[in-house]
Amino acid sequence: MEWLNQRQPKKIIMWALTYDCNASCEYCYLKDYVKPHKELNKTDCFKIAEKIVENENWRPQAIWLTGGEPTILSFLPELVRYFQQNGIQCVINTNGIIDDVKLDSLLNSEPKGLVVSIDAVSHKNGKFETLLFI
Fold it and tell me: Residues of 84-97 as b/e, b for ≥16 C-beta within 10 angstroms?
C-alpha cells in the first residue's frame, strides 16, 4: 500500500458498516457498545458513499470498511467496487471467517487490501485474543 508511505497528509475514513458479526469473541470491543435499533441498509450505505465520493473538500484517499464483520453484508463487493472505480482506495477489515463464494466475489471487487486478524490463545495469559493483524 504505497499510498500510505506518501509524505502528504492522508484523508482516511474508517467506516463501521455493521455491528453484526459471524463470531462471538469475548475480547471484541463491540460488545461494550449498545447496538443501534436499526442498521443502515444497502440504499442508505450507497447514499453515504455517493456523498463521500462527491465531496471534494473532504474526499478521502482511502476508506477502511470494518464493523462488526463487514463481509457478512451481501452488498460489500458492490460497495468496494464503487469506491475503487471512483478513485478511493478501499481496504476491508475482517476476521477472515467467510465462505469461498463470498470470498471470490469480494476479491473480484478488487479491494486495495484486506486486513485479517489472527486470533489465538496467548501463552502469557491463556486467553483467546487477537495476536496479529495481517
Answer: beeebbbbbbbbee
> Mind listing the pLDDT tens digit for each residue in 25-75?
777 777 676 666 688 999 999 999 999 999 988 899 999 999 889 999 999
From residue 91, alpha-carbon distances to 51, 71, 105, 113, 130 in Å are: 19, 12, 15, 5, 19
How far apart are the two ends of the chain, measured CA to CA in Å? 13
Provide the grid cell at 121: 490463545
Which residue in 81, 133, 69 sits closest to 106, CA to CA? 81
Whole-angstrom distance, CA of residue 83 vs CA of residue 59: 11
Helix, strand or coil for residue 67? Answer: strand
The pTM (predicted TM-score) of the whole model is 0.82
Q: Are strands 128-133 and 113-121 parallel, antiparallel or unpaired?
A: antiparallel
The Cβ-side half-sphere exposure at 68, using a 13 Å CA radius, reads: 17
Helix (H) or strand (E) holding 42: helix 42-54
